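Reader question, answered in our methods column.
A reader sent in the components of a multi-part assembly and asked whether the whole thing could be modeled at once rather than chain by chain. We filled in our standard form and ran it. Here is what they sent:
COMPLEX SIZE: two components
ENTRIES:
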Amino acid sequence: MFIKEITIMSFENYFPLWNDLNTAQKKLISDNLITQHVKKGTIIHNGNMDCTGLLLIKSGQLRTYILSNEGREITLYRLFDMDMCLLSASCIMRSIQFEVTIEAEKDTDLWIIPAEIYKGIMKDSAPVANYTNELMATRFSDVMWLIEQIMWKSLDKRVASFLLEETSIEGTNELKITHETIANHLGSHREVITRMLRYFQVEGLVKLSRGKITILDSKRLETLQRS
Amino acid sequence: MFIKEITIMSFENYFPLWNDLNTAQKKLISDNLITQHVKKGTIIHNGNMDCTGLLLIKSGQLRTYILSNEGREITLYRLFDMDMCLLSASCIMRSIQFEVTIEAEKDTDLWIIPAEIYKGIMKDSAPVANYTNELMATRFSDVMWLIEQIMWKSLDKRVASFLLEETSIEGTNELKITHETIANHLGSHREVITRMLRYFQVEGLVKLSRGKITILDSKRLETLQRS
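And here is the structure of the entire assembly that came back:
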């Protein structure tokens, strides 16, 4: 699953809490730190796997999502360079009573702090526990934002937002993405997304071609998502 | 807003963390603890108010919900005797980037630990910070459960679940509740709930009368919510 080791040289520059650790804690983390290169498409964590540990992304992109019994998906949030992933170590808190799947959306270099190591430090360290609190509050806020989107926003606005987010992440107006993938991000169905995109095309907002969506009018997409 | 003071005598029996506090911390909390009686229907906290503090419910019932710009509501979770309410002190964590409203669903006796007092103790105490982590993870889990309900469950199942939950909370099969209130809990519209309840009535699951819903067949409601 993991194909290449990367250097741990700069972990301390990436880990925001490094200077709050004592010498023993620093040594414990350094001695147990795992560095990995993960290929795009790899499932890094899911509810049935062992507790993976805390992930710190050096470079790349992860997607956290939930799955229904019928195999439907909805993206909870995405993580980028320097982001920490807490839910891959959900076993460190007994009150986390839900399961997520985490996959690499791009080739990703990351560090893994094993769950038991982090848990042990967090138990005794107020700074680490408080940092973990802030981390969880951030993800909780992401999910609250999602609930508000699902509840109060119509799908056309959500598709417009998603397309704009993608052009921003990818730095291009030519998105290589399938309708199925968009449906999985938004918790919708492929057919529904296809119908919406065709409507967008008739309106001159996008141009559709095989496996590709070209954004033609991002200003009107922005107006739509805000309306 | 608050009409009666209650005794703080048994706070230490209710607060699960009491024995993990040192003498100074115990004194700080005792000296600043606010005890209140809140009438049913009172809004205890909303996004625009000052940071209320941590609430510990002695007896009663609170509802935490979010509001859309158009005034639509959806219940995130409810709190009962001995539950702690963290989001009423959301200012203690800068990463909590969402606003909730908390109202008393019944007359409620509660203690308030002022936010600044709790925040100060949490900053230095690993046990308090870790306890707060577990508290937030519990609410996060409640909200994840809600997302799964909204995304994957049809409304008939959600209404069935809600009616069964209410009969359990109230200890009776005769629910004094309006269709509007059910809509506000489930993030739906009154008309949609009325249509669903009439369908339930035709199926012999409930009997509708003015301001009242009588559960006639809870076994079939249970089957429905699980299907």
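What stands out: Chain A has eight helices and twelve strands. Chain A has two domains: 2-148, 153-226.
Send us your own complexes using the same form.
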